[in-house]
Amino acid sequence: MKLFLLFFALTAVISSCLLEPSPDPDKAVVDEIEESTEVNLSLSANALGAFAETMEAVRISVYQSNDGQRGDLIGEPHDFSISETGRYKLQGLSTGPKFFLVELLGEGAKVIARGETFLNVTLGAQSVDSVTLSSVGDPSVAIRFEMDVALTNLPIGGPDVEPQALSIMKEGFKCQNCHASTVAGGLDLNSDPIKSGREPLASNYLALVEEIVARVKDDNRPMPPFGSRLDATQIETMETWLMQVKAASTPEVSIDFYRLTISQDDQDIGNFRLSRSGDGSWVITPDLVLGVGQSFQFAFSAMTDEESTLDAWQETLKIPLDGNLRVERVITYQEPAIDI
């Protein structure tokens, strides 16, 4: 009887071994490869903005994607200490579309900002270099506002154009071969009227005239940089013409101050009188706090005195995380009419 039971047990063990399928080598490789994924999220200084001073940790949560919508959370959130390089690595994720929720944690693990990004995870290493973060909780930031304004006069009936000056530049020395719209110096001699960058040349002469004249006279940095040089008569002809345009382009008025009205959804936030800083830009003197990520309407008025408005315009500005706002404006107080 004992021999019979021993024989039966051995038979069962052997049968179990024969019936159990052997591991599928292909499947084993696939499982191993699917885990060899690496996602690197980069939080640059620009993305962090003012939060860089208050954040104490970074939390990244990974979610399934359901028809392009954020689905179930995969595993537990990943908490990271602050990385000096700004890069945070996740490994071993399954392949396929995923949503990544990035949260900045402040004191007491309080979420102070969050942002979301989407990535189709594939085998190997991938990078996510752009995550837009929005403030959570108190969304306000102190505003540091600067405005630079270039005032130019483009008078009707400007100076008589000296054809010989253009002939020297365009025919004698072929200056336009290099100085076209997308080539050297941004000076476009092929445009009509001639332009510097995107503006009519006359509106830039306040800065350009002296530089152009100086370069054609400069023995160390000659212009043209090769070949024959302009002689004294040619330089005088061109310099006279350039100075004529400069004189006609010099503003005969000045801006005394700017009025600024800030509003949102037709509700006035405040009225300000901009003052001039030491570097010549216009700034808001009183403290101003606005909501991060919100858009506001800025209405500007350039005043030559308390009653006279030289120029007025509006811009919609979105408040960045760092609170820095910068506006640039070119004001012309007559229609362009100088044909050079």
TrEMBL record:
<dbReference type="GO" id="GO:0046872">
    <property type="term" value="F:metal ion binding"/>
</dbReference>
<dbReference type="GO" id="GO:0009055">
    <property type="term" value="F:electron transfer activity"/>
</dbReference>
<keyword id="KW-0479">Metal-binding</keyword>
<dbReference type="InterPro" id="IPR036909">
    <property type="entry name" value="Cyt_c-like_dom_sf"/>
</dbReference>
<dbReference type="InterPro" id="IPR009056">
    <property type="entry name" value="Cyt_c-like_dom"/>
</dbReference>
<feature type="domain" description="Cytochrome c">
    <location>
        <begin position="159"/>
        <end position="246"/>
    </location>
</feature>
<dbReference type="GO" id="GO:0020037">
    <property type="term" value="F:heme binding"/>
</dbReference>
<keyword id="KW-0732">Signal</keyword>
<keyword id="KW-0349">Heme</keyword>
<protein>
    <submittedName>
        <fullName>Cytochrome C oxidase, cbb3-type, subunit III</fullName>
    </submittedName>
</protein>
<keyword id="KW-0408">Iron</keyword>
<feature type="signal peptide">
    <location>
        <begin position="1"/>
        <end position="19"/>
    </location>
</feature>
